[in-house]
Every structure is written in C-alpha cells, then in structure tokens.
Design a protein that fits this description.
The relative contact order is 0.10. It is globular, with a radius of gyration of 23 Å. By secondary structure, the chain is α/β, with parallel strands linked by helices. α11 runs parallel beside α13. It has 2 domains: 197 residues, TIM Barrel (Alpha-Beta Barrel), CATH 3.20.20.70; 114 residues, Glutaredoxin (3-Layer(aba) Sandwich), CATH 3.40.30. It starts with 27 loop residues before the first strand and ends with a strand. The structure holds iron/sulfur cluster. The site of iron/sulfur cluster (SF4) has 10 residues, from loops.
Length: 411
C-alpha cells in the first residue's frame, strides 16, 4: 500500500519518532486488552475473555501504565519499532472520553520516546469521520478493521450487524487520512460455503491493506455459537480444511505483496482451558499453514524436475527449517513416500530469505552431483479453482550454462 507521507507524519523517515531505525519487519506490539468494550452487541463467534485472557472490560490509566512499563522491564529487544495496541473490543465504539483517555495514556510513552506509534482494532461501521477526527491529536499510525467476511449473508448469520460496503467505506476513509490499514478476516463462519473465504480474500486484497490476519472460526464455550453448535445448527471446519483454505489465502495475499501477519488465534492458557469446544484450533496453526506451503513448494518443484536420485537436499533459511520439516517431520515423510528418496536433508542456508526454498539433487557417492535448476516465484503459477483449491502448474526448468540445475521457489 502506498502511504501518503504528507498525511502520515514520519512514514518516509528512516528512523521512528523515538529515533529507532525503521525496520521493514513488523513493529513490536504491546497489547492492552479492552475485552468487549465499545461492542454494540456480541457477535456470535466471539468471547474476548477467552481470546485475550482478560476479563476486565476497561483498564484504568494506572493499569495501562503498569502493563506497558512491565513490558519494557522484561523486553530485551530495543531495536524494533514499538507500537502500543488496544485490542479485544471495538475501539471507536467507545464513548469519546474513553477513546481520548486511552490514547492520551499511550501517548505518554510515545512522548517519552519509549514507543513509536499507537494502533487499535475496531469495527468497520464505527470508523466514521466523526470518530476518526478524535485521532488527529495522537500518534495513531495503524487501524485494524474486523472485516470477518465480505459476504453480507455470512455477516448477517454471524450477527455482525454491518455490511461489506461498510468495510469498503471505512477503508476509503482511513486511506484518505493516511493510516496504515490491517484487515482481519475469518474463515468457516456460519453460512460460508465453497469458495466463500477465497472470495472474501479476493475482495480484501482488492482493498490493498497494509497487512491481513486470518482467523479460523472456533467454537468458544461462552459464545452464542456454542449453542448453535450444540443444537447441530453449525458445523465447524476440520483442522485440515482450515489449513488448506488458509494456505490458499496466504498465496492469494502473497501474490499481491500483502503480508499475512497472523494465522490462527494466539495460544493462551484460557483458550486451552477447555474454552474451545469445537473447531480447527491448534496452538501452532500458522506453523501448520506455512509447513503446508513449504511442502507444496517442494512437491511442485520435484514434480517439475522429474529427477530421481538417492539424496535430496532442501535448503531453507535457518528460521524456516521447522516449517520445511513439518510437525514431527511429517512433510519429509510425505516427500519420501511420494518421490521415493532414500534420504532427505534439510540444510539451513541463510543466503535464502525465509520464504525461499532451494532444492538440490545428488547421490552420496564421492562424485556427488549437484543439479541446479532455477525456478523463480513458483507460486506465480498458482491458479485458483472453483473450490478454492490451489494447484501448481508444471514449472519451467532452466539449466545454467554449466548444465547444473537448481530450483529456487518463493512462497
Ligand atoms: S467480534 Fe469484535 S465487535 Fe464483535 S463482539 Fe467481538 S470484539 Fe465485539
């Protein structure tokens, strides 16, 4: 997304307001939870007490200060850009005095040079001009909208009380004021069918947000959805389907250079304490999705290359080794079984970025042969089919002048 630097002070600078170097990576976020504060009603899937692990609706100024200060006392990382975030409620739905009180408390830390910006999540229908006017005096840089779906029928069945058009208008208003925009979507909501999630993903991508978050719908014990589930009126996605749909969404956003900064609910003891009664909850949901992507990527290039050998070497950035292996080495086992390699080695190689994979073929003999094939951006060739399934087309294989071959694929 192009940020209008005249409207978003500091966006083009190399350092943040607090003098820290601006990083291409996401800022470090200190969350302050305001569970259900400002919500006009309870959306049927929601139970913020379980999601945020906090039952207190509105923290006092003192509690906010203590929470942020505690974070600084424990955090060792001083390099990153730091944002203070108000999550778990409908920020712009709060009374004006509360909005100002929360923002001015966070602003104290920006003024003191400890933080660089403020962000919050809110409903699209509350991002009105009137409410946005309140933000001008504060260092708000980012606004996250709970979009959930771009299908009005699904929004209605989920008790959201706003339309897809409200989201489009809210994004226009926020862009007009130069804010970075994050859009949150859910998959598996009541009434969502077939390729519905992919269609929502497409419409969200068309809005060109700065980043997205993807949450699979799970049934929380204290949510209205739990009643529907118990009456057999709602059937959640299986974990496999949720991973598959999220994988396709990740590819869709990645192709448009839109970062996906979160997949799945944050793991918390509250969620684990029997709050999730059904649905595709996994404490490492994002890891499962990324492992599936690396597996697809490896399978795609192996199919294209059609080279059989004894040993397969998969090179990935050291931060991506576990994603390439999959949970309990599951991905390596699948590749072994499918392609009949005797040995698969995953080798850390930090010359590659975290979303790249280099594949080398060889034998374990002293005359080890290294085939190098270049394949850039494997997922540029991904096509989406009616049911939201992604498939890799046969990729072109190019050899370099010496006849060596290397496949490099990027998520
Ligand atoms: S989804 Fe958002 S608006 Fe709906 S109840 Fe939960 S916090 Fe409130």
């Amino acid at each position: 997304m192009k940020i209008q630097t005249d409207l978003f002070p500091g966006a083009g600078r190399r350092t943040t307001a607090a003098g820290r170097p601006r990083h291409a990576s996401r800022p470090l976020v200190i969350p302050v939870f305001i569970p259900h504060a400002g919500c006009p009603h309870r959306c049927i899937f929601c139970d913020q007490a379980a999601i945020t692990g906090s039952r207190r609706r509105m923290p006092t100024k003192r509690e906010i200060r203590e929470r942020i200060s505690r974070f600084f006392a424990y955090s060792k990382d001083r390099r990153e850009e730091i944002h203070i975030a108000f999550y778990g409620g409908n920020f712009l739905g709060l009374p004006k005095a509360d909005i100002t009180r929360l923002l001015s408390t966070a602003e104290e830390f920006v003024t003191a040079g400890h933080a660089d910006g403020i962000r919050f999540s809110t409903r699209p229908d509350t991002a009105t001009e009137d409410r946005l006017d309140l933000l001008g005096a504060f260092s708000v840089s980012t606004v996250e909208l709970g979009v959930q779906s771009m299908d009005d029928r699904v929004l209605g069945m989920s008790g959201r009380g706003h339309s897809a058009e409200d989201t489009v208008k809210a994004v226009e208003r926020l862009k007009g004021r130069g804010y970075e925009i994050g859009l949150q979507m859910m998959i598996g909501l009541p009434g969502e069918e077939g390729s519905g999630a992919i269609e929502t993903g497409r419409r969200i991508a068309d809005l060109e947000p700065g980043f997205v978050r993807i949450y699979p719908t799970v049934v929380l014990s204290e949510s209205p959805l739990a009643r529907m589930y118990k009456q057999d009126l709602y059937r959640p996605l299986s974990l496999d389907s949720a991973v598959g749909i999220t994988k396709n969404l990740y590819i869709l956003f990645n192709r448009k250079d839109i970062p996906v900064i979160r997949m799945g609910l944050q793991d918390s003891t509250d969620l684990q304490d029997a709050n999730v009664i059904a649905g595709p909850y996994h404490p490492a949901f994002g890891h499962l999705v990324l492992s599936a992507l690396f597996l697809d990527m490896a399978a795609g290039v192996l199919k294209s290359a059609g080279i059989s050998c004894y040993t397969l070497i998969l090179r990935v950035n050291s931060r991506s080794v576990s994603k390439m292996r999959g949970l309990k080495n599951e991905s390596l086992q699948i590749l072994k079984n499918s392609f009949r390699y005797r040995q698969i080695l995953v080798v850390p190689d930090d010359s590659l970025s975290t979303d790249e994979l280099a594949v080398e073929f060889g034998t374990s003999s002293p005359t080890y042969r290294q085939h190098r094939i270049s394949l850039k951006e494997a997922f540029r060739d991904v096509e989406f089919f009616a049911k939201g399934e992604a498939k890799l087309r046969a990729a072109d294989v190019a050899r370099d002048r010496s006849g060596n071959s290397k496949i490099t694929a990027r998520l």
